[in-house]
Give the backbone structure.
Amino acid sequence: MKPRALLAWNVRRIRIKRGMSQERLARTAGIDRSYLAGLERQSKNPTIDILDRISEGLGVHPSDLFVEPSSCASILKISPRPKRPRLLRKNG
């Protein structure tokens, strides 16, 4: 797995395991939520300082962000965010 994909997978996996939203982790790490989302989509290339802040926010060592998944781990089994119910608007 490429380093950027590995980082994205681990950040999301650990964040979800901890029950953290992107908003909460971003606030804790002092970064923008959209930047964190980009990192999880593999479109951002963070600095070491950003990685350190994210790992602190997750409560893990920075090296944990680069742990290879075991052969039995399923990258696709990370649950997506549940959809919010839509509010119905009254006409008139």
